[in-house]
User: What shape does this take?
Amino acid sequence: MANLTLSALCNQSCAYCFTRDHLGDAEPGPSFLEPGDFEARLDFLDRSGIDQARLLGGEPTLHPQFAALVEQARARHKKVVVFTNGLMPEGSLTCLERLDGTECSVLMNVNEPEDGQSGLERQRTVLRRLGEKAQLGFNIYRSDFQPGFLVSLIAEARCKPAIRLGLAQPCLSGDNRHIQPNQYVAIGARVVRFARVAADAGVTVEFDCGFTRCMFSDQDLETLKTLGADVGWRCNPILDVSIEGRVIHCYPLSRLGSLPLTPETDAPALRNAFETRTRPFRQAGVFQECSICPFKASGDGTSSLEKCPGGCLAVTIRRFRHTPFSLIVPRHEARA
Amino acid sequence: MNGPLVYQCSPAIVWAQDADRVLLIDRDTGQSWALRDAEAMLWDWLRGGYTRDKMVQMLSLACSPSVEDAERTLDGVLENWREAGIIHVSESHVLSEGSAFGKAGF
Assistant: This one.
C-alpha cells in the first residue's frame, strides 16, 4: 500500500487534520503534483507490485488535471482509490462517476453537521452520484462524537453500506485536535453502541489504524464480531508520497523524516527502512501499561485480533522526552 | 584540570516511563535500554536534579545496606551508562539545554 499526494491544498480546514506538520513544515512549494511526475509515481507502484493508485491530498480532486491523472492510472490498470472530503469540482466528479466499482472506489470523509463546516449538501450530492463506489469515513476527535447521521446519509445516498471509523491521532507536534488515550475506553463503548445502530440499518463499521484492543471489553469485542464489524489493531508504515517526491511513514509521523523516491526505490524497501527507524519505539505503546500487556505484539507493527501493536506510533513517540539533566560531582568524589 | 566532573544526558537519548521500566532510546543509533529497579530510580533522580550525596543517601535507604555499597552502585551505574553513551562526562559547566526533539517534544 502507498498513497500518492496530488494536492497540497484543501477546501476544508478540519481541526483534527493530521497533515498539519507535513504541510506546515514544508518549504513553500508547488500546490499540485506535476502530471509528468505522476508517471514516476505509477512506475513506483508498478515495481512495488501495487495494483491500486491511492490518491490523497490536501483534497486530491482539486488537482486541475485530476481527470487526466485518473486516466493515466487506469491506463496502467490500477484501481483508483480516492480519499476525499467530497467537496470536489464537477469535472473530477464526472470523471469518477464514469468509472465502475472495479475501477474506482472513493472514501469520503465527512464531519458531523454540528461542526459548522459547510458542504454537507454537496457531499450528499456527490455521494448520491457515486453510489456504491463511495464509502463514508468518519474521524473521531472527541469522546462525545455523534455519528448517527452517517446511517441516514448512507440510506439516502445508496452508497456502500460501510463506515470507516478513524481515531484522530496527533501529529508529532500535537498541533492538530486529537484524541487522548484516556478517552479510548469511552470512545470504544460509543463505537460499540453505534455499531449496533448501524447494523440494524444493514451498515457495518470498519476500523482505520490506531485502535487498541483495550478500548473494548471482551464482551464488546464479541459483539463487534457478531455485528460483522471489520475490527483490527493496526499501525504500520502507510507510505505517503509527497508532491516533492519524498516518502513519509504516514502524515502524523512526517517529522520522523522522509526518504527520497528514486527510480530504484520500491515500497518494500521503503517500508523496511521505516520499520527499522521506528522499531525501538515499537517496544512501547500509547499507555505505560502496554509494556506489561499480554496482548502487546512484539513490535513489528503487524497484529492480529489477539495481538495489538500498542496503538498509534505517533501517540507513543509523543510520550518520549529528552531531559538535559546534569550531575556535578567534585573530582575527589568521582570514580570516572 | 581539577574542576568538578559534569555528567550530562547525551543529546540523542529520549526516555519514556512504562509500567515496569524506564525505556531509553538513542534516536541516532536506535539502541535501547530498559531500566528497572535501582537503575530506574537513579534515572528519575538524575532527571530530578538530585545531588550525588542525596542520591547515595536515598539509594542506601532504598536498596543497599551501607553508604559505601550505595556509592559503589551509583558509580557503577554511571560508568555503565557512560560506556553505553547514555551519558557523557565533561569538565565543563556549560549545560546542553533544550530538547533534542525541537518543537513540542519531537
Summary: Chain A has a mean pLDDT of 93. The interface with chain B takes residues 172-175, 255, 276-277, 279-281, 283-284, 288-292, 316-331, 333-336 of chain A (CB under 8 Å).
